């Protein structure tokens, strides 16, 4: 089957970026929305879409920068804005971080035991490479992500031409690589995390096997419920984005310019 020419989606991608909250727009959701719009499964074009989206974001940032007045990089205002942006990135890139800000009603899952070690605050034993960077042996995903972004900001490692690209120094390159984008942080982090029991001890192979047998049914139920929630969220999100894109791309007479793409 011939691959889909993702360059045809450039106007639609631009429209999605304009009407979307970048704090909740992930590459997966963007791909699902585009697949629904063109009625084609775009799973085989993940890499091409990823590259194109980053290029469009970078171009739009450059255009916005030209339109806005220059900000003094030494001013307190700039520092506050940079801190806020980096915190948002840390929250957004951290897997398991709450799905806040999604448009539409989403059914809420029953709250788990408050003492249970799970989610963004779940503790992990760190691989020696990450432990050396963090200067600690145990931490959670959110704290790690926040520390990585603090380090990037303090060392001024963001590419000035594309602040979503990181140019690592020797210390950060040991953990990730010399150049990477913001989506790579959460993806690579999982390679360095070793699960712990709730009391902070590492789970042994024997305990893992016993727990896998005892909790298999519960895990299946949890996974089914999570998948149902994600499907509902994606459906709500996709419907909302499609509506906003169509409204955004209408001409003054009310006729959709690219109506055929959405119907």
UniProtKB/TrEMBL annotation:
Residues 237-249 have a biased composition (Basic and acidic residues). Residues 119-195 form the DM2 domain. Residues 199-236 have a biased composition (Acidic residues). It comes from Kuraishia capsulata CBS 1993. This is DM2 domain-containing protein. Coiled coil: none annotated. It comes from the Eukaryota. InterPro entries: DEK_C (IPR014876), SWIB_domain (IPR019835), SWIB_MDM2_dom_sf (IPR036885), SWIB_MDM2_domain (IPR003121). Residues 199-263 are annotated as: Disordered. PROSITE patterns: SWIB_MDM2.
């Amino acid at each position: 089957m011939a691959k889909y020419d993702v360059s045809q989606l450039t106007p639609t991608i631009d429209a999605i970026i304009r009407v979307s909250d970048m704090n909740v727009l992930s590459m997966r959701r963007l791909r699902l929305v585009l697949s629904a719009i063109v009625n084609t499964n775009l799973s085989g074009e993940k890499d091409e879409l990823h590259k194109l989206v980053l290029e469009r974001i970078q171009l739009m940032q450059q255009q916005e920068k030209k339109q806005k007045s220059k900000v003094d990089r030494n001013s307190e205002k700039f520092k506050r804005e940079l801190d806020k942006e980096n915190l948002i990135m840390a929250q957004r890139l951290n897997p398991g971080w709450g799905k806040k800000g999604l448009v539409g009603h989403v059914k809420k899952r029953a709250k788990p035991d408050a003492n249970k070690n799970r989610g963004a605050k779940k503790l992990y034993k760190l691989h020696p490479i990450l432990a050396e960077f963090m200067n600690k042996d145990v931490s959670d995903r959110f704290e790690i992500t926040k520390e990585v972004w603090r380090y990037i900001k303090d060392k001024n490692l963001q590419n000035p031409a594309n602040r979503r690209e990181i140019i690592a120094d020797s210390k950060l390159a040991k953990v990730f690589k010399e150049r990477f984008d913001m989506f790579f942080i959460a993806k690579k982090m999982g390679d360095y995390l070793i699960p712990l029991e709730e009391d902070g001890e590492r789970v042994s192979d024997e305990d893992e096997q016993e727990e896998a047998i005892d909790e298999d049914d519960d895990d299946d139920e949890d996974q089914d419920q999570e998948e149902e929630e994600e499907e509902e969220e994606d459906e709500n999100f996709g419907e909302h984005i499609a509506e906003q894109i169509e409204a955004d791309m209408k001409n003054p007479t009310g006729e959709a310019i690219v109506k055929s793409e959405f119907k």
